[in-house]
Amino acid sequence: AMEAPPLRRHRARYKGPATPPWKETYRRRCVERLRRSRAKLLERYRQAGRAGAALLVPEVMELEWQPLAQVRAGRPLGAPASRAAGSACRGRMVEDPDELAVLEEIQHELVLQEQSVIEEYERSLQFDEECLNAMLDGLEASDKIICPVCRKNNLTVRNHLVLCQCGLYITTQDMTEEKLRSLLENTITEHSYRCFHNPEFTVTSGMEEETSLLMSCSVSLKARFLG
């Protein structure tokens, strides 16, 4: 290959700052840590709500920067470092405008990832709320009772059992559609008074207990509902 003319080589030196060698590793580790912390992120969101600021990104970036700072400072991973030394290293890092731009780029990507997770969760909550409202509307407007588990089929209620095409099958005593409708309405309404999250209904059974219908919530304890 022909060697570039001296002038071209001279200009190439000033085309702009090269990508720091640690950028891709740091970015990948931050993205992966944020992905693994989805449950923690949603728990923090449920407690704080959308306040307009990143909920977990600063913490993720700080945790992943610590081992990188050790390597850059010439210490092996796992070697103890004083808090002052760590702060000084981070201070030197952010004073470099090129590296600061890299960190801001990574932070922007992480914030978008965090927002995407929260928006997906909000859509899920909205869908659950619409399904519950549809079920309550159906309870009020019809003699039929929509299954709280699959939220699609109507329940069949007999004196000694409640069943659905989705597989729900619970033995009961002296159960009527009117009793079950009232039980569903009261349980969901009572929950909505003390919690703004939507409950879910599941069927559970054990070796020593009969099949039951449980109502659970992401921020509340599970409660035996029927069975």
Automatic annotation (TrEMBL):
Task: Name where it's found.
Answer: Nucleus
Question: Quick one: where is this thing mainly located?
Answer: nucleus
Q: A Gene Ontology CC term for this entry?
A: PML body
Determine if Zinc-finger is one of this entry's keywords.
yes
Q: Which residues form the RPA-interacting protein C-terminal domain?
A: 146-219
Q: Which UniProt keywords apply?
A: Metal-binding, Nucleus, Zinc, Zinc-finger
Q: Which GO terms describe its biological process?
A: protein import into nucleus
A molecular function GO annotation: zinc ion binding
Occurrences of domain RPA-interacting protein N-terminal (ranges): 9-48
The segment(s) forming the RPA-interacting protein central domain are 57-135
| Protein's name according to its UniProt entry | RIPA protein
Q: Its encoding gene is what?
A: Rpaina
